[in-house]
Amino acid sequence: GASTGGPLVLQKFLKELSADVTTPILIVQHISSGFTDGFAEWLSFTCSLKVKLPSDGEKIESGTVYVAPDNFHMGVDGTGHILLSDLPPIRNLKPAVSFLFRSVAESYGPDSIGVLLTGMGRDGAAELKMMRDKGAVTFAQDEESCIVFGMPGEAVKLGGAVYVLPPEEIALKIKEILKGSDNF
To answer: Which is more confident, 164 or 179?
Structure first.
């Protein structure tokens, strides 16, 4: 999950991950309506992973990055499918990181990784803690590397992050975790 400053951080993060990651990646980036298609296309040109906007009920594929589409919350179910929801905004946000993290916590618990990057507000902070409480490995971007430490800072205050690192180190740690685990 990311907000203010997120596009460049996500681009660098995915580029660092792309050579080694075969697990699916789901992204909620707060971005002005109408720019999501271009954002996903831009990401696809800068990393070796397939990047797309999903459709409701789509089966999640390994090595694919799913970007939440305009005006829909994105989540997952326990059978490996994308859920797009037209529920009202959460804290004035749609899509909301909170919706995604809650669905991941409930559906995959300890078999998941949550990352909360730069951004204003607190979207996803409590739900990152929920993921951690369910056994997920959780990350928050460190204050020094954030444009705005709001979302990750709130997660840190709540005890939601197992690791607090700059994005490059988050990517390296995730690669290390994925190499040593059969759960992902």
So the answer is: 164
